[in-house]
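[09:14] KT: can someone run the structure on this one? pasting the chain below
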Amino acid sequence: MPENVNTTPLQNLEDPSFDEHSTAENMIKVDHVSMIFNMASEQLNSLKEYAIALARHELRFKEFRALNDVSFEVRKGDVFGILGTNGSGKSTLLKIIAGVLDPSEGSIEINGSIAPLIELGAGFDLELTARENIYLNGALLGYSKKFIDESFDEIVEFAEVKEFLDMPMKNYSSGMVARIAFAIATVIIPDILIVDEVLSVGDFMFQQKCERRITKLIKEHEVTVLIVSHSNDQIERLCNKAIWIEKGHTRMMGDARDVCRIYRVLGGHIGSEKSERQVFDMLNAKTPIPEGVLKTIAGEDRYGTAANLMEKAGYEPGGVALIVPGEHASPCLMATGLSGILDAPILPTKAEVLPDTISQWLKRYAPSRIVILGSTALVSQKVEDSLAVLFKHSQIERIEGESWDELSANVYEFGKGQGSGWGKTALLTYDGCSGDLVSFSPLSWTKRMPTFFIKENGRATEPVEKIIASNNLNHILALGGDCHFSDEYLNDLVDKTTWKRIAGRDCYHANRMINEIVEETFFDESSPTALEYIVCTTWDPADAFSIGAYAGKKNSLTILEDPQNLDSVAQAIEYIGLKQNDIRQLTFLGDHTRFSDLDKSLLGKALSQTEDSPSNTDN
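[09:31] RB: done, structure tokens below
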């Protein structure tokens, strides 16, 4: 887990106002509980080494706090959820409540009998049959033989293993073992049921069956339930209260829906406390988002998203189509300037097969000419042949290049004889600078800017150097710090051409810098601002590989954001707040795996919020 995940409380934990009107009996009280484990500071490989270190007083331990001062109460009839990322101490807490572990500090009060569903299948002997293990496991849980005899048929019926009762359990699947363990553990009606990730085992139908049994225990017998689950939806659906624990610290507790909502946006995410607070406050702001402000362009995958982008860009049928290797960012983004020259859509393809969504879009577009970027190692001959079959009357050309720097030089040479040709400003960058190229893509398309790549040694190939040193270009924008190419090299390279380095603290800071440059260059008095901003993810930027061919035609700018990085989210909120008088629409690129509805609402609120917007940030 990243070290800059925050652990400080997000609310006043001493004021559990969500529980102030409850008069139900207290079933579980966790009072300032901490759990400390001693971890050896060095590896000892044998008992002898351990004894020697102990005798020499050289045995050293490092203290690890799995739980740190955790307190909460669970009342009768509550279904209490525990949320947290892996390693946050959830299972440790359940084991303390179940009596498996004693806390290092603090105390636990339990009022009633407990049925712990922790580590299903523990205590089974896999060499024995299922029939024998039902009696064995029941005995370990404290059931008498008479009780097992009376409940045997019920256990077998629930587990659905009647046909396999006399088969050794070593031949069972893990799901079948879980069925039997769950059936045994829930055959009684306890006062308190402790469930640790049980509802995530077995097949889908069995998970539903387990959930129905737990629901029955809650509704018909008022069993108090404590649930740990990685499924936010499950906690929100089943629980009325919840606590969020991060790295052993309590971050928040209250109504399950509220805790789950906050956890979805902040749980396990990296970023500074300041950024997290800014995101938290915006999440709680009661700012209405006007209809039409938020829009999404997405497909089933990067190819479907690209097809939808090109459809909405409004390219007239019968023109040129650019086919690019969709698994590589550099050639796709390199194509942006050429797309501006040719007024051509950028369509990514798989190496060995033309995706169906791209094929279907091309059939509607009916290109008169197709240009493929990259060697057959990037876009295979099979793809070219399939294009030739689909579009018998289309001219098909290929721009070769064994490396990105060689390909970029060849793309430039190809574009010189096309349409109005290249503009006078070029981009110089390196493979991996995708975020900056996405940010520049609206300007690259509009101003027909060629993009050149350097080699790993920080120098360009001779063809690229000759192009830059020629009189055809007036200005070079160098994307990246001097760790990629030095000032001395740029001074020697450009000769009569001027250059400027664009390097931000990170891709989000660079995005703002580049947007300022784009705004200064891109818009005139008749169109002073970009009304649409396209929000792209940086953790998986594949959806944005064709963005220039859309943004250029739509006069749109980009915002880079990683919802997992709260610093980037806070920067986006701040930037949108500064630009809110200019922006009319935020278009999110990619499906719900890129941006959830909550992620979108955060930026929508930032765009819609005014100084007197009502908010709920009393924490």
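[09:33] KT: thanks! The first helix runs from residue 47 to 55.
[09:34] RB: yep, looked fine to me
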